[in-house]
User: What shape does this take?
Amino acid sequence: MSKTDVDSVARFGGDVLENISRVMVGKQKEIRTLLVALLSEGHILLEDVPGVGKTMMARALAISIGGTFSRIQCTPDLLPSDITGVSIFDQKRGDFVFRPGPIMAQIVLADEINRATPRSQSSLLECMGEGQVTVDGKTYRLERPFLVLATQNPVEYEGTFPLPEAQLDRFFLRLHLGYPTLEEENIILQRLQGLHPIESLEACSTPEQVRTLQEVVTKVFVEDSVRDYVVRLTQSTRSHSHVQLGASPRGSLALMRAAQAWAALEGRDYILPDDVKKMAPWVLAHRIVLKPESQLRGLTSEDVISELLHTVPVRAEEDGDGK
Assistant: This one.
């Protein structure tokens, strides 16, 4: 892989970050993490309170890369066919015609996924995992890049269907936006006094470029000691005293992929232990289940990951010779 390839990833990240920042005030790290998922071909669980810009961020990303966008409003009466699409009999043609559902877009916002029934959730997650839709025995490939941003409200659980651990594990990373600061909220009000910035936002990239850069990211070099650190960090979640269910090997792979994408966005063709540490809370926290007594004590999965980042050493640091 040439330095030019990595530089193209860094330029792409800078351009899209600047473009989305015209709509989103602040949230620089969160936007970069969103790009990590896009370049790693992963999907995002966006867990936050209503009204902090989740939909705007998804729309701004779709516009920035010149991709198609759709929104699925998850409700208890949502059917799998409302997501994937349905075959309808065309009397003129005398045959069934496939009417694609909202999942056929490149950037898909699944709003309040925990309000959909497990049957509909499974249909959506199957599309995420397989990258394809099967309707009436016929398979339709989803166009790359394909990214699902599923949102859920972390406060109100009445009338919801929480995602089980096996389905949470299918999300590449979990992201929180949080409330804006006083200064940021003032800027938001100023910007929205007139026409919404999303209405004048233009593309700064193309889906073809994103697909090319996704291939570049997979070639970012991973040194043996860093790979070993990724594995030991993930395995340590399985033996922690407060953890009932640790991260799976899928978590190890996601952490390595995320670190590769972050390094490429930084303009490097190799990853550092610090890249792994930056990505670990986003990638691993939602993949572990704490013991009930630990939850009652107020401990969070982020607390466990933070502790492990301080206690699990990098092999090169242990050897002291950099090998």
Remarks:
- The first strand starts at residue 44 and ends at 47.
